[in-house]
Amino acid sequence: RRRHTRYISVTGVQTCALPICFAADGEVVRDRETGLEWRRCALGTRWDGKDCAGARAFLGLDAAEAAAAQEGDGWRLPDIKELYQLLDDDCGTPPVDRVGFPDLVSGRDEEDVYWTTTPMDLADLWYCVEFQHGFADGHSRGISLAVRLVRKPK
Length: 154
What we know:
Distance between the termini: 25 Å
Structural class: mainly beta
Largest sheet: 4 strands, antiparallel
Shape: globular
Radius of gyration: 15 Å
Strand content: 25-35%
Low-confidence stretches: 1-14
Helix content: 10-25%
Order of helices and strands: EEEEEEEHHEEEE
């Protein structure tokens, strides 16, 4: 988790400012610290220049990995360490950069959980991150969760 983001105020609500940790270029957001490139919008949606348009896909882990492979161009599911880096305690609640990732949190807990490729030390459970409150959890591969794609820089 991070603790070094500036705030901007949008209609009186504190929101994280993009420039400290991330640089956005259309549908891609680059992490200035790790160099990783993130899809700005969840799988199933696309950046329209102002927001994420469409409906998020909720998939089991196997289907999510297959969908990431179909995207090509190096896109994949993140591991737990990578996805957890999107959390920033300085952002308040929810603890995420809403400028860089406008659809990361919907306000409905059950929709704000994203897959990782990291197995837990428990039988057939895989780490996921819940972004509404900012914690890691575990689910079996068949549970349908949201998907955020990442890749190494080109």
